[in-house]
Design a protein that fits this description.
This protein is flat. The protein is an alpha/beta fold. Helix 8 links the parallel strand 13 and strand 14. 32% of the residues lie in helices and 21% in strands.
Length: 993
């Protein structure tokens, strides 16, 4: 039980500490709104008193275990004065006012106020009754726990009345290791604050539900106000209003313009008002189409009257320069202070085609048909092109978001929404920057386990983010980014055309069970082009079947039916050229009849994908689509492990006192199913493919067959589907880190060594360890490095060789000659002292003096293949493990493979086999295969080293000579730096750029 404040002993004298601004954070709450968490300061006295007055007597009783109607001046002083070490208080604010508080007080083992090294603290929460049930307490617990760990506190103690079931649930559901006891009429809870796999899963599950709900509030509003609707036709605001009405939006619509005449009551048939304040009813979404200088006024008008979210079409922000960047930051701060999320600024708009919503709050004049594809873009121009391309090809969308400068809502948020959206089967994203690549990779991997994620990335080679995108700049090459995306199951394509091509196949056809492709058609040449394209993409095409130019639609139907029932193929590509009659003219009905025949054959065996390549056959793409009113292909129940359990029960937390789950409700209040538990599965009807990568759609369902104007485009899309299906099958068998890897690992010893090497005044830019220190650190993780002895003169070289034993190698370590045997800086297999002295003289005569060359002597190791192993921390992407062959393959050809850390046994095996020169490791041209298991173990040890110690910013092992039995690390380099912030592992927070 916490003693009422005015009964506590007086404050002790504490040293002053700087305001910890890094504790400030914007968070998304369970209902999709936002709030700000920040330290309580001495200036918050009035806010604290006002907040406490709005808390019910019951909540006050639960907090203090006694009636406590008001705070005394002494209470207010205590609750607003903290030393930020032994006493810390955090507040949750909306609109600048407190809605919740939490504080901890460090205590000793007898429960008395204490200072370090005491590592336990008493914690207590209080949440305003009007905001309980929004997930505030769980968010506060995450943040106060992170603060406590930073200050050396390892446990929280809390006493809770048994009747306060909601608060007990907050602690119980947090996922921390905990103990509970019943003492003196109260429940005593002790939480170990060390993060666990369960606490991290709980945190990420809550994050997913909250962020998905915040996007759902934007895409399924019950009412929309267009702020900046012009009085005359034309203009951005009037265009958005017209598009809203044209799409048949099911909610209420309002036109807002401060310049409207006082007596104007409607425009285009909807209510017209001069401000949001005059609407008089709740507004869920506001579309801002006003000049940038008027946006703050509009945001304030919206925020003060309960608007839940904004779509800001206005330009003149970060894309316009430093002044605009600061204007953009101010916009985000202002909107979040009211609990609103923003799409934009400089956005193109949003679309939701669901029958219950029919929202087109965008500048797109022709809204897409309803479909199964979700589309996100960071560029309005690309958004227009993609919408146009999908419209021309008859493809429908479930939702569309063009985020512009994406100052707030980003692709990560949209992935959170699509993950559980039953109306979206395929996620397409055009990205120019990735604000939090670690989080993107995590979310993409989880989403890709249940539905395809296809990405095309712009600004790949510029080395900087596009104007308007204030995000960390990654230093790793684009090829590495692509490899990491593929590791997460993302289908990475190069162009927006390929994005549409792949999206169409994945949305309307089942996933192939393998790479075997049957080819049939009425053109031998087109069949051969398709065959060649299959080989280029790594597929296994069967011999093309030529139906001849005289083939009729009935012939195509029979041939396709035969191919689909053939167990020797996994997919079919149909090639077709126009049918030419005896008179030499094209048959105008050929496209319609052929399309009908192909759809009929495909519908009888819907378990294999079909793609059509055609050359100028009029009407064929349209005929390959199901007729109006036909049922769309849907999925059968999925029980595969990658999809997760089918239930939708969710445990909630309280807002100081916990309530039930916060489902995302649409305009009508219906809540879609939510994944069970933290990061669990998805609703059954949103799973298009089963965990083995096979389509599970209902037999006989009518679906669209995608048509392509070129064989290369169809085959490339099919190849992406094959690779994705293989990833899905493998994702059902997740890798692990073998227990044997723990052998010879001394994590505590390594931590102590790193702390000593870094010292108290560590250079934030990093420090390269001396060879001896690097070797000592690596040895603590079971990675021995072969010793090298300095040889500043021939006599020293001879002495070193005698100690190591012949044969030896003589090598230079000068930076310009390091690992450059081609320049003569390495002499191998020196069998005796005479050969060593001769090599020393030749080396120094040819390349320079010993002071310049820095020669060393090293014992020879068994012959093998020279490889290189690297691990590096990228500020944006996180820890990356890389592997390749040493020398020209990796340095000249860039033949390196990459995986994110921590790596599993499957990652290590894939890493070795992913490089183009991998055959050299497996007995190429009759050579003996090398010891790849030893190499895989080395990769896992390096991964573990970097993952355990964030102070290690780079490790390079080169060369690593892999022999037929065992391997030898001949040289190693390690860099240390103060540990970087690991945003994706801390308490959930919105980015602040």
């Amino acid at each position: 039980m916490e003693t009422p404040p005015d009964q506590k002993p007086p404050d002790h004298a504490y040293p002053d500490h700087a305001y910890p601004d890094h504790w400030e954070a914007d968070v998304v709450l369970r209902d999709g709104g936002t709030a700000r968490i920040r330290p309580i300061t001495t200036d918050d006295a009035e806010r604290l008193v006002s907040f406490y007055e709005q808390v019910s007597d019951e909540s006050k009783y639960y907090r203090f275990f006694a009636p406590y109607p008001r705070l005394s001046a002494k209470d207010v002083h205590r609750f607003t004065h903290h030393d930020q070490v032994d006493r810390v208080g955090l507040a949750v604010t909306v609109g600048g006012e407190f809605i919740a508080t939490v504080r901890y007080d460090r205590i000793d083992d007898r429960g008395r106020p204490a200072s370090a090294p005491a590592d336990e603290a008493e914690v207590a929460f209080l949440v305003q009754d009007a905001h309980q049930g929004r997930g505030i307490a769980s968010a506060l617990l995450e943040h106060i726990a992170a603060v406590a760990r930073e200050r050396g506190i390892r446990r929280f103690a809390a006493e809770v009345l048994p009747a306060n079931a909601k608060m007990i649930k907050v602690f119980r559901d947090a996922g921390y290791t905990q103990k509970r006891s019943f003492e003196d009429g109260s429940v005593r809870l002790t939480l170990d604050l060390e993060p666990t796999a369960e606490s991290l899963a709980v945190q990420r599950g809550r994050e997913q539900r909250a962020e998905a709900r915040s996007v759902q509030r934007l895409l399924a509003p019950g009412s929309v106000a267009v702020v900046g609707t012009g009085r005359a036709p034309g203009g951005v605001g009037r265009t958005v209003l017209r598009n809203l009405l044209g799409a048949g939006f099911t909610g209420r619509t309002y036109a807002v313009n401060h310049a409207f005449e006082e007596d104007r009551t409607e425009i285009d048939g909807v209510p017209a008002v001069r401000s949001v304040a005059r609407i008089g009813e709740p507004v869920d979404l506001a579309v801002l189409a006003v000049p940038a200088e008027r946006v703050p006024e509009a945001v304030a008008d919206c925020g003060e009257h309960g608007v839940r979210g904004l779509v800001v079409l206005s330009a003149g922000y970060a894309e316009s320069g430093p002044g605009g960047r600061e204007r953009q930051r101010a916009l985000v701060r202002q909107a979040r202070s009211y609990g609103m999320r923003i799409i934009g600024p400089n956005a193109f708009g949003i679309i939701n085609t669901a029958d219950a919503v029919r929202l087109n709050a965008s500048l797109a004049p022709e809204p897409p048909e309803r479909g199964r594809i979700g589309l996100f873009t960071q560029s309005g121009a690309i958004g227009i092109a993609l919408l146009s391309g999908l419209y021309r090809r008859g493809a429908g969308l479930s939702s569309f978001v063009s985020a512009g400068n994406r100052a707030d809502v980003s692709g990560n948020d949209i992935l959170q929404y699509w993950y559980e959206d039953p109306d979206t089967d395929v996620a397409l994203l055009y990205l120019e920057s990735i604000g939090n690549p670690r989080k993107f990779t995590r979310l993409a991997r989880r989403t890709a386990a249940v539905k395809p994620v296809v990405v095309v990335k712009g600004a790949r080679h510029s080395g900087s983010a596009p104007p308007g995108h204030a995000v960390p700049v990654t230093r790793i090459p684009d090829a590495t980014v692509s490899a990491l995306m593929r590791q997460a199951g993302v289908i990475r394509v190069d162009t927006v055309t390929e994005l549409v091509d792949a999206g169409l196949l994945l949305a309307y056809q089942p996933l192939p069970a393998g790479p075997r492709v049957a080819i049939l058609g009425n053109s031998e040449s087109l069949g051969l082009l398709t065959y060649d394209a299959c080989l280029t993409e790594g597929l296994r095409p069967l011999r093309p079947r030529d139906l001849t130019t005289a083939a009729t639609p009935a012939d195509f139907r029979v041939a396709l039916a035969d191919a689909l029932t053939d167990d020797a193929c996994d997919a079919v590509v149909v090639t077709a050229i126009p049918h030419v009659g005896e008179t030499g003219t094209l048959d105008p009905t050929d496209g319609g009849a052929l399309g009908t025949a192909l759809r009929e054959a495909a519908s009888r065996t819907p378990s294999k994908p079909v793609a059509v390549v055609h050359v100028e056959i009029v009407g064929l793409p349209e005929a390959l689509s199901p007729p109006a009113g036909a049922p769309a292909a849907r999925t059968a129940p999925d029980t595969g492990p990658a999809a997760g359990p089918p239930t939708a029960a969710v445990s909630g937390d309280g807002a100081g006192h916990t309530s039930g789950a916060g489902h995302a409700a649409g305009p009508g209040g219906a809540a879609p199913a939510v994944p069970p538990g933290p990061g669990g599965g998805v609703p059954q009807d949103s799973r298009r493919h089963d965990s083995r990568g096979h389509d599970s759609r209902t037999q006989g369902a009518v679906s669209r067959i995608p048509a392509y104007p070129a064989a290369e485009r169809a085959v490339r899309a099919l190849a992406e589907a094959v690779r994705y299906a293989r990833w899905r099958r493998e994702a059902g068998r997740p890798g692990k880190v073998p227990e044997t890897i723990d052998d010879a690992i001394d994590q505590g010893g390594a931590a102590a060594l790193i702390e000593r090497l870094l010292g108290e005044d560590a250079d934030p830019r990093g420090t390269r360890l001396a060879p001896a220190d690097a070797h000592e650190l690596l040895a603590l993780y079971g990675v021995p490095v072969r010793p090298t002895l300095p040889a500043p003169d021939p006599d020293s070289a001879a002495l070193a060789a005698a100690g190591l034993g012949y044969p030896v190698a003589l090598k230079t370590t000068a930076p310009h000659l390091r690992h450059r045997a081609d320049l003569g800086g390495v002499r191998l297999d020196l069998a005796d002292e005479a050969q060593l002295r001769l090599a020393y003289r030749e080396l120094t005569e040819a390349l320079g003096g010993p002071d310049e060359l820095r020669p060393v002597v090293q014992a020879m190791v068994p012959r093998g293949v020279d490889t290189v192993v690297r691990a590096a921390i990228d500020a944006a992407a996180g820890a990356v493990l890389s592997f390749g062959l040493a020398g020209a393959p990796s340095e000249l050809l860039g033949d390196l493979a990459h995986r994110l850390v921590p790596a599993t046994d499957r990652d290590a095996a894939d890493l070795i086999r992913s490089i183009r020169t991998a055959p050299l490791l497996f007995g190429w041209r009759g050579s003996a295969p090398v010891d790849t298991p030893a190499l895989e173990e080395l990769l896992l040890r390096v991964s573990r080293l970097v993952d355990d110690h964030p102070e290690i910013v780079s490790v390079t092992l080169e060369p690593v000579v892999v022999a037929t039995h065992g391997l030898s690390v001949l040289d190693a380099g390690v860099r240390l730096a103060p540990p970087p912030a690991r945003d994706d592992l801390g308490p959930r927070r919105l980015p602040s750029y």
